[in-house]
Design goal:
CATH superfamily of chain A: Fumarate reductase/succinate dehydrogenase, transmembrane subunit
CATH class of chain B: Mainly Alpha
Strand content of chain B: under 5%
CATH class of chain A: Mainly Alpha
Distance between the termini of chain A: 78 Å
Number of helices of chain B: 5
Protein name (chain B): Succinate dehydrogenase hydrophobic membrane anchor subunit
Function (chain B): Membrane-anchoring subunit of succinate dehydrogenase (SDH).
Structural class of chain A: mainly alpha
Order of helices and strands of chain B: HHHHH
Low-confidence stretches of chain B: none
CATH architecture of chain A: Up-down Bundle
Order of helices and strands of chain A: HHHHHHH
Mean pLDDT of chain A: 87
InterPro entries (chain B): SQR/QFR_C/D (IPR034804), Succ_DH_anchor (IPR014312), SuccDH_FuR_B_TM-su (IPR000701)
Largest interface: A-B, 31 and 34 residues
Strand content of chain A: under 5%
Radius of gyration of chain A: 25 Å
Largest sheet of chain B: none
Number of domains of chain A: 1
Subcellular location (chain B): Membrane
Low-confidence stretches of chain A: 1-13
Structural class of chain B: mainly alpha
Shape of chain A: elongated
Pathway (chain B): Carbohydrate metabolism; tricarboxylic acid cycle
Oligomer: heterodimer
CATH superfamily of chain B: Fumarate reductase/succinate dehydrogenase, transmembrane subunit
Number of strands of chain A: 0
Number of domains of chain B: 1
């Protein structure tokens, strides 16, 4: 019975009336919101959260290559170790570390927000700045510890 | 909430289970949070492991990866991380790709990529753990 009722509508539920189509086509003034808007830090960190997530996605290839190299011959492992140790390799791994730290702190922020806490405008901005500062500090700390482990 | 639906005996959870275009209800949302929480200690372990191993050669790295505790935790790092990243990439695809055909294709590719990385990595871990 329900189906018959929907079929009774001419053109189905998805079609728009001529008046609706005319309204959609008409040129309407747009607020220049995106061009003059100073992005709040929460917005910037939200965009970076997504970008770092995407970077970490493809970064898993580095983990897979490293594990496969360790499971294969010494020559393969030494080559991968060399590639990761070049300046370009180190730069990519440094960026990878920062992406992981930023995405992790941003994720903690989202988990806090999920509870309903920290959503007040100024609090949210402070937490957003904290994720940026915290991610840089953690990344530097990890690399200092890494070089210390290497020296020891 | 009120009015006609007062007689509905189902809990709010029962009402949303199986909803959404993929009929999976809040499954995506929930798995994303669950793996996010699991990833925090797992990724910190992975980073700490790499710091400790920095500068080590072939034999040392293989011995460290062959340790049963390390192998098990790294398997969890991979599984939790890969599930999380697949869900995240699915959202990115659904947000930006509007063409229905391309969306389906990229969502399938997303799963293939995740499984390929996971299978290759876990095979390497098993090979090291069981002496390859």
């Amino acid at each position: 019975m329900g189906d018959m009722h929907e079929d009774a509508e001419p053109g189905g539920a998805m079609s728009k009336s001529p008046a609706t189509r005319e309204f959609a086509r008409r040129e309407r003034p747009l607020s220049p919101h995106l061009t003059i808007y100073r992005p709040p830090i929460t917005m910037t960190m939200s965009i970076i959260h997504r970008i770092t997530g995407g970077a970490l996605y493809f970064g898993t290839l580095l983990v897979a290559v490293w594990l496969m190299a360790a499971a294969s011959s010494q020559a393969t492992f030494d080559w991968v170790n060399w590639a990761f140790g070049t300046w370009l390799g180190r730069l990519i791994l440094f960026g990878y570390t920062w992406a992981l730290m930023h995405h992790m702190l941003g994720g903690v922020r989202h988990l806090v927000w999920d509870t309903g806490a920290g959503l007040e405008k100024h609090t949210a901005s402070k937490i957003a700045w904290a994720t940026l500062v915290g991610s840089v500090l953690l990344t530097l700390l990890i690399w200092i510890a890494g070089y210390m482990a290497r020296g020891a | 909430m009120s009015g006609k639906n007062n007689t509905d005996m189902r809990t709010p959870l029962a009402k949303v289970r199986g909803l959404g275009s993929a009929r999976e209800g809040t499954g995506h949302f929930w798995r994303q949070r669950l793996t996010a929480i699991a990833n925090i200690p797992l990724m910190l372990f992975f980073v700490g492991f790499l710091i400790a191993l920095n500068g080590s050669g072939y034999a040392e790295v293989r011995a460290a990866l062959a340790n049963p505790f390390v192998a098990l935790v790294l398997a969890l790092v991979l599984i939790s991380g890969l599930i999380h990243m697949r869900l995240g990439m699915q959202v990115i695809i659904e947000d930006y790709i509007t063409s229905e055909g391309l969306k389906l294709a990229t969502i399938a590719l997303n799963t293939f990529f995740t499984v390929a990385v996971g299978v290759a990595s876990i095979f390497a871990l098993l090979k090291l753990a069981f002496g390859g």
